Amino acid sequence: MEKEKKYCYEYPRPALTTDCVIFGFDGLELKVLLIERGIEPYKGRWAFPGGFVQMNETTEEGAKRELEEEAGLKNVFIEQLYTFSDVHRDPRGRVVSVAYYALVNLKEHPATAGDDAKKAQWFSIKKIPSLAFDHEKIFRMAMLRIKGKIRYQPIGFELLPEKFTLSELQYLYEAILEIKLDKRNFRKKIKKMNLLIELDEKQQNVQHKAASFYQFDKQKYEELLHKGFNFEI
Amino acid sequence: MEKEKKYCYEYPRPALTTDCVIFGFDGLELKVLLIERGIEPYKGRWAFPGGFVQMNETTEEGAKRELEEEAGLKNVFIEQLYTFSDVHRDPRGRVVSVAYYALVNLKEHPATAGDDAKKAQWFSIKKIPSLAFDHEKIFRMAMLRIKGKIRYQPIGFELLPEKFTLSELQYLYEAILEIKLDKRNFRKKIKKMNLLIELDEKQQNVQHKAASFYQFDKQKYEELLHKGFNFEI
DNA sequence: ACAAAAGTGTTTGGAATACACCCATGC
DNA sequence: GCATGGGTGTATTCCAAACACTTTTGT
């Protein structure tokens, strides 16, 4: 029996979905979270988590809801990426998707504890499998965005634990920008922007000189943002 | 009699529209094109041109179609701005809008020759009237985008005629950035990026030393873009 | 001759880059 | 004592910013 179609309109409407590119950093590599599709179309292919936008939520709220339902992630940095509307991007019919990207710190969200028992897995951005729908296009755009953005906004801290070493921060920048940076110059720049708080704590049980932990000074950053400030790496 | 509602779906769907912030430059001021609404809601208020997305077109195609229908503009630079989805942004019901911004050169599109006999008018960005819906939010975002973008991409040329003087170019940058620039430093930077062709032609019948006309070297720009280049003003 | 905008260089300070060695720790 | 990564300074180059006068043209 056909499903009941009870929502009727004078003109046809595309379906509206969100998709979310979730970036995580494990200390070495930049990764994204993918979900294996359990149903057609693209059954068995990997895709970014997403779903339909409900009538009582904004697209951002929808993306956050899917983030929690499909990946068990709450209170993470999320920002709109782009809206994808190719007429044939979904074989089921006309579906327009508002894509977001999110940044999470993998140490505090290690596994992929989605409520739905869907198969979810973190993939290095260097080894992305073939993706469903137009998600490869979405991924390319998300990479461009994050690479551009990290140069003038301190979004990197969203990907690190509360306390981190300067080397961890540098590895993160290198992973995102896909280039090597000079240690001394990197530290000079980071120190100059004056948004890090050096903690008394140091690494323990490491087989080398213990590194100091630092913390991002979010409060100071908000203040400076308010005054219309500029950050560049 | 109620209108026939013949497009039915299993779940409710928001309506999908586009809105477009059209920037123009008249040599002195940066302006945007607004349409006076002829019907409720917000009858008599000004709004950006826009309309419903059709099932056989992308949102960008829809925005371009509206641009032509409502403002008589064809073949202009257009780029996606942001998708606005507040649940109550439209009093008629749930309407999600994908906003675009366009750049046109006012000398070649002087009047506001829309096919629809709607009232359209160019407003200086310094004197924007009260707008319908959430269009003030859209406008603020468009301003931020264009200000940020012009610093690293040569989009300004879209707002100028084919041939222009360096002073005109400088006035444009000043109008967009809402700051004064130093003439010598501006010219130094512009010359260094090496994307202008100096023409043999000069201004005529001006009451001062005649300025040379220049042309944007689009071909060279495309080549450099391809090689992954960086432009900064 | 004068009004009005075009056009042009130099100096200075700060940022970006390149580059190599000693230090603390665990084994 | 050695392997491992932490931490640090200087010299050079390049870019950004500040700044004023001469030139051309029409009236």
Please render the helix and strand layout as text:
The structure is a homodimer.
Chain A: E1 7-9, E2 15-25, E3 30-36, E4 46-47, E5 50-52, H1 59-71, E6 77-84, E7 95-105, E8 120-124, H2 135-149, E9 163-164, H3 166-177, H4 183-193, E10 196-202, E11 212-216, H5 218-226
The structure holds a DNA duplex (27 and 27 nucleotides).
Outline of chain A: elongated
Return the structural class of chain A.
alpha+beta
DSSP E strands of chain A, number: 11
CATH architecture of the largest domain in chain A: Alpha-Beta Complex
* Poorly predicted runs of chain A: none
Distance between the termini of chain A: 59 Å
What Rg of chain A do the Cα atoms give? 20 Å
Please explain how this structure is put together.
The model of chain A has no long low-confidence stretch (mean pLDDT 93). Chain A folds into two domains: 15-149, Nucleoside Triphosphate Pyrophosphohydrolase, CATH 3.90.79.10; 156-227, Orthogonal Bundle (Arc Repressor Mutant, subunit A). Chain A is α+β, with helices and mostly antiparallel strands and 233 residues long. Chain A contains five helices and eleven strands. The longest helix of chain A has 15 residues, at 135-149. Helix content of chain A is 26%, strand content 27%. In chain A, the strands form two sheets. In chain A, strands 2, 3, 4, 5, 6, 7 and 8 form a seven-stranded mixed beta sheet that branches. Chain A has helices at residues 59-71, 135-149, 166-177, 183-193, 218-226; strands spanning 7-9, 15-25, 30-36, 46-47, 50-52, 77-84, 95-105, 120-124, 163-164, 196-202, 212-216.
